Amino acid sequence: MIARLSWLRRLWALPTGRFGVIVVIAIGVIAVVSLLWTPFDPQRVNIPARWSPPGWPHVLGTDASGRDILSLLMAGARTTVLVALGAGAVATLLGIALACLGALTRRWTREIVAVLVDILIAFPVLLIAMMISAVWGGSLWVVVISVGIGFGVNIARVTRPELRRILHSDFVLAARASGLTPAQTAVRHLLPNVAPVFIVQLSWGMAVAVLAEAGLSYLGFGAPTTQPSWGLLLSELQTYLTAHPLSVVWPGLAITITVLGLNMLGDGLREATDPTLSRRRSAAASHTPAVVA
């Protein structure tokens, strides 16, 4: 068990991994806390307090309706976590299924899957989301499903060649010769060895899911107006950008930090779970000539 969890120590030792872990945990804690408590009701309209500057009791100020911006950001974190986890789950299921079908099945099945992936990957994620929203209406589930499909296909495209390469490794051939079924071989040997590539793609997909939700909500295709969302809040506040520029900074900063944290967490996880990267960096550092003063 200690050996299996050693990658957690390596992840925390990396600056990128530490930053990503802190950001992701902070967003998750804020989302959970907002279920139980926020400084004010996020949807409470208080006209006398409209456009209050940052201070007490409104730490980040209020908007044009007198709603507390900090409370809106805390409630919007729930939407962000929901979209990131939902899109990640859909992308994981679809990506692993397509990758296994494209790497472990007969030749004609692999070719069909490869053509299907090439066709689906030609459509941008936001375009798919907007097309689905035009038919079914804007909602968070549309964002989750469309982003999950888009990045599930991308995960399959990247993971499938890695599976094919590992499939011809000596340890996989030995496992098959020992009597393991294809499913057992995939679970015990193939998927763990493509985990670093998969994790990076998944974290990047979750980061773009946050951006996609914010962008679609900004355009009116994402979260409904009754549900707090960082993108929706940014859309409402940007109307008053010239008069109250500071109010726009907070939702934009929340989106930026979250996406940056997810991307850096993915980079840290890739290095922590792939020992060959750390060995190569250590070897390169040991052969770096010292600078003579």
From TrEMBL:
This is ABC transporter permease. Residues 77-266 form the ABC transmembrane type-1 domain. Keywords: Cell membrane, Membrane, Transmembrane, Transmembrane helix, Transport. Belongs to the binding-protein-dependent transport system permease family. InterPro entries: BP-dependent_transpt_permease (IPR050366), MetI-like (IPR000515), MetI-like_sf (IPR035906). The keyword Cell membrane applies. Its main location: membrane. It is found in: Cell membrane. The keyword Metal-binding does not apply. Pfam families: BPD_transp_1. It is a multi-pass membrane protein. CDD domains: TM_PBP2. It comes from Microbacterium imperiale. PROSITE patterns: ABC_TM1. GO terms for cellular component: plasma membrane. GO terms for biological process: transmembrane transport. The chain crosses the membrane at residues 12-37, 81-105, 112-132, 138-156, 198-221, 241-262. It comes from the Bacteria. Gene3D superfamilies: MetI-like.
